[in-house]
Structures are given as structure tokens and as C-alpha cells.
Amino acid sequence: MQLFRHLVWLALLLPITIKAQYKPTWESLDSRPVPAWFENAKFGIFIHWGVYSVPAWAPKGVYSEWYQYWLQSGKVFGNNNPSPTAVVDHHNKVYGKDFSYYQFADYFKAEDYDPEAWAKLFEKSGAKYIVLTSKHHDGFALWPSKEATKAFGRPWNAVDGAAKRDLLGDLTTAVKKTSVKMGFYYSLYEWYNPLYRDKKYKEYVNEHMLPQLRDLVNRYEPDIIWPDGEWDQSDTLWQSREFLTWLFNESPVKDKVAVNDRWGKGIRKNHGGYYTTEYEVGATFSRPWEECRGMGFSFGYNRNEDIEDYNSTQSLIYLLTDIVSSGGNLLLDIGPDGHGKIPPIMQERLLEIGEWLKVNGEAIYNTRSWKNKVQWSAGRRDWKPPHGMVSGEAMLKQTVQPEPGYAAKEIFFTANGSTVYAIAPRLPEGRFLIRDVNPSAGTTVQLLGLPRKLAFKKVKEGIEVTVPKLSVQEVPCRHAFAFKITQTI
């Protein structure tokens, strides 16, 4: 009895370190908070890179990373009502009817690939995380996955193939030397995997998919697992709940990993980790979320796109501020070519966003939605972009180039505690009204990048800030201007 009492007394002295054990139900799994680092990050870079980066072609408005499917199915869909045979016609003309998609792997050599340079670019862009396609729907793996080569009966990963290199592993090593977090996209389904094609789904999941996912987690310890291709089957068939239970309870990344919502048919925007949208404008959720899109209309590099198909830096900055004001993150995609080079226009966009974030980052990182997401001008607020994948250029119509009679978003709001940030798409001059802000006795107002406080006064609608006329040299940045308002009530 004395020993029992001693053990009880000792147990009371020990700190309680029992952690939640998640169960394979959505109720349990959804109770796991999205890691705080993700909600604070706000800006990430998506990278679509694989065998499809060799042909790197699709009709304008179409995903080039779907090249194999467009070719072998004879179907094409996307913006601009593309011809169903557009890819087949292009392929036969350029490569010949007898040239198989699988032969492109022999040209995916990535001979110009410099993961250290990539990692430095990502850090300069101001991105806080990246998500690389470990494997897209064609099944080609960027790491030495034995399952990939076994499934297709030919070298079908980057180490066994022409590159002779662990492309994913090398980038992971380079990125982990920086402040940027590393994540992996992974397609749950594969168009022409023999097991999947023949509907041997149980074998596909147990012998191919789950071993690959566990290998990625155990080998590289990613900060994000970003599944896709989930829509074809239920979360039960994918065994998604069982995998997530292992990931959250037992895996080496159980305490830090973030996951999205793409875990089975009907699951997106209902269960999982953070919610995802794709080529949308104007979304908002009560849960952490992320918009993903390319700089043009494709995720994989599409050499058929021209300059007018790319979003301007201005529109991308407005897109970022709009998304962050609504509580989301922007995952902006780049598509390297088959040689391993990031196209210069994509590098330029990233560097220009990074320059803007150097000045205005505190209005973006670590912030949350304020009580008002935006401040509108007078006019109608029901302008809608064209149907289909929405270009980021639509943000210009909602800000600095509204159609006659339509309202514009004059200010995007974010907040960090009692500090409110009002981000204006135009640099105001003179008296600038910021509505619904209630200052306290200690409130100050500053234009980020300008080393002096601004005069303001309390008015009925909020506060009226006096913005001085600035010389070209004094203007702190381009495109959007963040006013920091401290100690609001």
C-alpha cells in the first residue's frame, strides 16, 4: 500500500504529456488544428515538374501537365473551348504518331537543374513554403520510388530515368537550408497505371499508393502533404482516414505536418486539413484555406502561352492581398522546363513579389482577417469574371480598372492583434478615409516603408489620414500600399 501511494504521489508530480490520439473518423481527424505555421505563412510556391515538362504544350487555357491524358484519350477541356484533338494533332505533327508519351521520359534529363539556385529564388520571393509535384497523374516519380518503375515495367522515376538523380531529394535538402518549408504534391490516382486502369483498386492502394506515401513521409519528412486526383474514388477506397491517422499519430512529422482537403470524392471543402480552391476569385471560409493557380492558365510549363496569358505582378499582388484579407493563403505555381530551368518571366514575377513583401510583409505574414475584409467604393458590387478558370487579371477589374457603374475594392484589411493594416491598390494623396476604424488614445498611423508617422483625425465614418505628396524616391514600393494603424479599439 505504501508503494502504491508513493507511485501515485510520483505520478502527480510528473508533467502531463499525453497527446491526442486521432481516430480514423472525420470527426476526430477534423479536430486536429491546422498547424499555426501554415496559417501564418500566407504565400507559397507550387511547382509542377515532370515528364510533361518536355513537350510542355497545350492549347491556351488548358493544363499542359495533362498532356498524356489529352494525347491518349483524344479529349481536351479547359478555357476557350479547345478542339478535342488539339493535342493529338500537335503531337502527331511534331513527334509523329508512333512516338509514345513514355518516350518523353528519355528526354527528361534536368541537366540544367540547380536546386540551390531554386531555393534561393524561393526565399527571395518571400514565399514561406513550397509544394513540389512528387508524382502527377502520369505516375512518374521525382524520387527513387521502386513502386513507380515496377508498376510501368520501365524506368519511371527520376533516378532510374534519364535524369539519374533524386530531383525531389536534392530540392528538399536545398530548401531545408533556408527558412522556407518543404511540401509535396501527390496524385492519389494515375491515369494509366496497369493496376488502376484494370480497376484492381485494392492492390493499387495497398501495393502502390500507400507505400509511396509512407516512403515520402519517412524518407523526407515534409511539412505539407498535398494530395490531388482524389475525385475519382471515395476516401474509403483510398484509405485516406487510415493514412491520416498514422500521419497524425505515429509518423515522424505528426506534430508539424499540414494537409489539404483532397482525400476522396466529395471530401474537398468538407473535411481534411485546410480547404483548397483552384483558379477562383472571391472565396472565403471559416477554416484556413488556400487558393492555387499558375501564373498563366497552366500549372505545368506551357510554351504555347504568350506574355498576355501571364498574370502581371500587379494583379498577383492584388490577388495575394485579397486572399489574405479573406483569411487564406496563395499557392502560386511555377512550371520549370524539362531541362530544369525556371522560365525567366516566372523568376521575374517571384522576385517582384518578393520586393513588395520586403516593404509590406508585416501586413501579410502572421495576420488574420479583420472585421471588414475590404472597403468598397460606391457602385454595384456584383461584377463577375468570365466563367471557367479565372485569370488573376480579374483583380484589376475589382480594384483599379472597374467597369462603369461597378464598385472597386479601395482597401484590403488584415489584422494582427489590435493592429490593423489597410492595403490600398492606389497610393492616395491628401485626405484618405479608412472606414470603421476606432482609434484609441495611443493610436498611430504609418505608411509601411515611409519612416515617419502620418497625421490623422477621428471622423464619424472611421479615421481620415493625411497622406503627404511623395517624390518618386520617397514612394516605398509599387502596386499596393499598406497603412499600419496601431492600438485600435
Structural class: alpha/beta
Number of domains: 2
Stretches with pLDDT under 50, minimum 5 residues: 7-17
Biggest pleated sheet: 8 strands, parallel
Q: What's the architecture of the largest domain, going by CATH? A: Alpha-Beta Barrel
Distance between the termini: 59 Å
Count the E strands. 16
The CATH fourth-level homologous superfamily of the largest domain: Glycosidases
What is the helical fraction, as a range of percent?
25-40%
The largest beta-sheet arranges its strands as 5-4-3-2-1-8-7-6
Query: What number is the mean pLDDT?
Result: 94
Fill in the CATH topology of the largest domain.
TIM Barrel
Count every helix, treating DSSP H or I runs of 4 or more residues as helices. 15
Strand content: 15-25%
Could you tell me the radius of gyration in angstroms? Answer: 25 Å
Shape designation: globular
**Broad CATH class of the largest domain:** Alpha Beta
Characterise this structure.
The protein is an alpha/beta fold. It folds into two domains: 26-363, TIM Barrel, CATH 3.20.20; 374-485, Sandwich (Immunoglobulin-like), CATH 2.60.40. Helix content is 28%, strand content 17%. It contains 15 helices and 16 strands. It has helices spanning 2-13, 26-29, 36-41, 67-73, 86-94, 115-125, 146-152, 167-175, 194-197, 201-220, 235-238, 240-249, 313-325, 344-360, 394-397, and strands spanning 43-47, 129-135, 181-187, 224-228, 258-259, 275-278, 289-294, 328-334, 374-376, 409-416, 419-424, 430-435, 445-447, 456-459, 462-467, 481-485. The chain has an eight-stranded parallel sheet with strand order 5-4-3-2-1-8-7-6. A five-stranded antiparallel sheet has the order 9-10-11-16-13, with helices on one face. Strands 12-15-14 form a three-stranded antiparallel sheet, with no helix packed on it. A hairpin with a 2-residue loop joins β10 and β11 (419-424). It is globular. The N and C termini lie far apart (59 Å). 46% of the residues are buried.
